[in-house]
Design a protein that fits this description.
Distance between the termini of chain A: 37 Å
Strand content of chain B: over 45%
Number of strands of chain A: 11
Shape of chain B: globular
Oligomer: heterodimer
Radius of gyration of chain A: 13 Å
Helix content of chain B: under 10%
Distance between the termini of chain B: 41 Å
Largest interface: A-B, 27 and 25 residues
Largest sheet of chain B: 6 strands, mixed
Number of strands of chain B: 12
Number of helices of chain A: 0
Chain lengths: ~110, ~110
């Protein structure tokens, strides 16, 4: 079974530029999460989708971050414009309906904002 | 709100030493508890979990017991190997909050031969 796929793996941009990350969850997983992991810290949830609907986006800085999952499968996370403090690893995770708790994580996208 | 506190690292041990990484939590309900591991250059992997009080999760020689009375979920291994070198994250999942994971800050373990 293929795991959660993310791209790109690494991205370097200058502040005020825009960037987008892509996630393809495990096939059949209805729930998808985006987390931000700042160096030396644990991941922090940004947004949770159930199919193509948003369940929780209370931690998403909506003035600059946006995310969508239009067809209930792939998802994109966008930052526009980026700030220095957005430098982090962005993790995507998915969870099947049958597993009440376990989330499966992708390898992450490491973003560096200069 | 929910929170997880784990001991800061790095923890440096010699091969075959005993490992304990402390984890305590605060939660409003009855969460499930997890340990995730992050090897260098890789994504987070579930190491073990426990879904109710007194449950013991175990995997690859690691163990952790869900202690409701002390709100703890300490990770232990009797004999660590160099290949166990990684960052370990304690986390909780609250079904009343969409099963989102709340993570601790992570503990880096370095095992020397």
């Amino acid at each position: 079974e293929a795991g959660v796929a993310q791209s790109p793996r690494y991205k370097i941009i200058e502040k005020r530029q825009s960037v987008a990350f892509w996630c393809n969850p495990i096939s059949g997983h209805a729930t998808l999460y985006w987390y931000q992991q700042i160096l030396g810290q644990g991941p922090k949830l940004l947004i949770q989708f159930q199919n193509n609907g948003v369940v929780d986006d209370s931690q998403l800085p909506k003035d600059r971050f946006s995310a969508e999952r239009l067809k209930g499968v792939d998802s994109t996370l966008k930052i526009q414009p980026a700030k220095l403090e957005d430098s982090a690893v962005y993790l995507c995770a998915s969870r099947p309906v049958s597993s009440y708790n376990e989330q499966f994580f992708g390898p992450g996208t490491r973003l560096t904002v200069l | 709100g929910n929170s997880v506190t784990q001991m800061e690292g790095p923890v440096t041990l010699s091969e075959e030493a005993f490992l304990t990484i402390n984890c305590t939590y605060t939660a409003t309900g009855y969460p499930s508890l997890f340990w995730y591991v992050q090897y260098p250059g890789e994504g987070l992997q579930l190491l073990l979990k426990a879904t109710k009080a007194d449950d013991k999760g175990s995997n690859k020689g690691f163990e952790a017991t869900y202690r409701k009375e002390t709100t703890s979920f300490h990770l232990e291994k009797g004999s660590v190997q160099v290949s166990d070198s990684a960052v370990y994250f304690c986390a909780l999942s609250d079904k009343n909050a969409g099963n989102m994971l709340t993570f601790g800050g992570g503990t880096r373990l370095m095992v020397k031969p």
